[in-house]
Each structure stands twice: as C-alpha cells, then as structure tokens.
Predict the 3D structure of the following.
Amino acid sequence: MKILVVDDEQDICEILQYNLETEGYEVVTANSAEEALELPLQEYGLILLDVMMDEMSGFQMARKMKDNPATAPIPIIFITALEGEDNMVKGLNIGADDYIAKPLSMKEVKARVRAVLRRASASNQHPAGKGAFPTSDHQISYEGITLDLNAKRATLDGEHLSLTKLEYEILSLLLQHPGKVFSREDLLKYCWPQDVLVLDRTVDVNITRLRKKIGRYGQQIKTRVGYGYCFEK
C-alpha cells in the first residue's frame, strides 16, 4: 500500500514516513501541495495531508482532488494544528475521511490509518442487500442513479458523480435497503471506521452534502425525525 504524506515541515514528514514504513507501508513525502499535485496521485491508497501550508493549503489541494474523478476516491486524512469543531467539519465537508490534530501521537496516527484503509478494503466486499433496487451482480440502479460496486463509481444520468468514500458508502447502504430507516448510530457503524470518534453532526453534514450531489434524487433521502434516514421511491 502506497501512502503519500504532504506537510511543509520536513521533520514531520520524516517522522511519519519512518513510523508508517515500520508498519509495512510504502511512503512518499512532499513538502507542499504544489509538489504533491505533480505526483501520480491515483497510485496512492491514502494521503495524509497537512492543512496549513504556504500558498496552497491542504483544504485547497483536497478540493482539487475531489473535483477530479481520477483522484476523488482516494481517502484523505487531514493533519492540522487548527483547533475547533468548525475546522473539523470544514475538512469533512471537503471530503476528508478523518482528521488528526497536532501534536501527533504516532500510536493514534497508525490506528487511524489502519481504520481508514480497513474501511476502504471492506467497502470492496459489500454485496447488494436483500430488497435492493434492480441490480446486476455488481451494480445497483435506481432510475438515473447507478452504483458500480466493483469499481466503486457512481453515475447520475450517465455522468460521473464525484462522491467521497463516505458519501458513496452511505448512498450504497441506503439504495441496497430502500425504505429501511438507518439511525445515525447505524450509519456510523456501517460507513465509518469503528475506532474513530465521529460526532452525530458529521453524519448530518454528509447526508446534506450527498443530497445536493445526487440532484433531483436528493429529496428521496428522507429524514425520520428521532429515528434517522432512509431512501424512498
């Protein structure tokens, strides 16, 4: 597994590289977002991305990646000295899979990296659920929405949908169980790493973002006040 570490502090890059390589990962470092964007990013299975860097910030780089279908699916863990829930939510809104605050605990970094990669790997093994919308062995379709469960790609009216991994997993879960109400706790259990602390508000943020991305079908993700969310025809 190839991991890219992007941080303008060389010492942090070296520490992360050493510790992650002891876990068996192949690690490449870059000292700026501009340098990182020159690399073949689609070859990496995970990116650890510092937020506060000169010129282009980590947030800006992440937006560029999420706007590009070739790099949109790559999981991102933000690493930052910024504090506060608003900054965490901003990172998640962009499409980050996790968020680690400085100063870094290498034990925490390793655990979160394992969790994100485990979730990414597990997402490749989810079969279509009973009662799903019409599907082949590897596709779920509802009118203009199609999910390719093998390629982990989503299309809307034949056009690529740039979804984050979390958005894809939420949509996949809802479409595979139409009419079933999933609580926030359910969504956290099935779509997020189990050993990562996530606020309930984060679920709502991702649902809101997903509704916007799937256009006219967004209104079919229903909120059941006091219970959770479901997809209705």
